[in-house]
Amino acid sequence: MEEQIVYEDNHLLVINKKVGQLVQGDKTGDDSLLELIKDFIKKRDDKPGNVFLGLVHRIDRPTSGLVIYAKTSKALSRLTQMVKNREVKKTYWAVVAKEMIPKTQRLVHYLKKNEKNNKAIVFPKATEGAKEAILTYNVIKTLDNYLLLEIDLETGRHHQIRAQLSKTGVPIKGDLKYGSPRSNPDGGINLHARKLEFIHPVTKEKIEITAPVPQNDAIWRACEE
Questions:
Q1: Average pLDDT of the chain?
Q2: How many domains is the chain partitioned into structurally?
Q3: Are 41 and 9 in contact (CB under 8 A)?
Q4: Looking at residue 32, which CATH number applies to its domain?
Q5: pLDDT digits over 70-98, tens only?
Q6: Given CB 3.0 to 4.6 Å as the disulfide criterion, which of 6, 110, 131, 150 pairs with 123?
Q7: Pair type for strands 191-199 and 64-70
């Protein structure tokens, strides 16, 4: 667990999540990072009783990258509000097939969650029950068969990046749910929460954190070279 912690102080802890890890418990009953980190802190710090840890925001199970957990209730309430107010800047990396797309583009769609199949339905125009979804991507690297996109999120909708890129004709590598032709060996998708920037909720310092990409994936390694 220790090697996954990329930032920690008395108020918060930031993890570089691996593909397949759950950020918090769900109906599968599988181990979640929330519980694993609690156990780790309890043992490391020799804490009696319960350890307080709150999830500030989530990323999907098949993705990797940065997730913030709060170690105090004050930090949790402040950070949750900051995320809601879009005061936490999130930058993602995504690998997509090499297609003719603009080098940079701001995508605006409207998303509605289909609860039955846990998928976002994308509409080009405002539609009843659908929420506005906005992101900007830049092509930052060209590989033999793939493009590396850097993505800045303006909104945080369910499966937003996955759904919007798919609608644009470039589903994320490995993302069968949104139209990728084949799965990745590890069952994940090439979407990585790369960078977080925010003002610390307690100390008011500027925090900037970058997460290395998964090293067990040759495409990711090529992106970081």
A1: 94
A2: 1
A3: no
A4: 3.30.2350.10
A5: 999 999 999 999 999 999 999 999 999 99
A6: 110
A7: parallel
Find out whether 135 and 120 touch, Cβ atoms under 8 Å: no
Tell me what pLDDT residue 20 has. Answer: 93
What's the pLDDT tens digit per position in 118-134? 999 999 999 999 999 99
d(CA 106, CA 92): 14
60 is catalytic: yes
* Domain region containing 46: 2-224
Q: Which helix (H) or strand (E) holds 151?
A: strand 146-153
Specify whether the CB–CB gap between 49 and 3 falls below 8 A: no
pLDDT for 16 equals: 98
Distance CA 72, CA 162 (A): 32
Residue with tokens 């090499």: 98
Contact 63, 192 (CB under 8 A): yes
Cβ atoms of 174 and 162 within 8 Å: the answer is: no
Among 26, 45, 60, 175, the active-site one is: 60
E strands of 89-130, at which residues? 89-97, 104-114, 119-123
CB 213 within 8 A of CB 192: yes
Ramachandran class of 156: left when φ > 0, alpha when ψ lies in -120 to 50, beta otherwise: beta
pLDDT higher than threshold 90 for residue 28: no
Q: What residues contact 195, with CB distance under 8 A and at least 6 apart?
A: 66, 89, 90, 91, 208, 209, 210, 211
**Which band of pLDDT confidence, cut at 50, 70 and 90, is reported for residue 224?**
confident
Among 63, 60, 65, which residue's Cα sits nearest to residue 173? 63
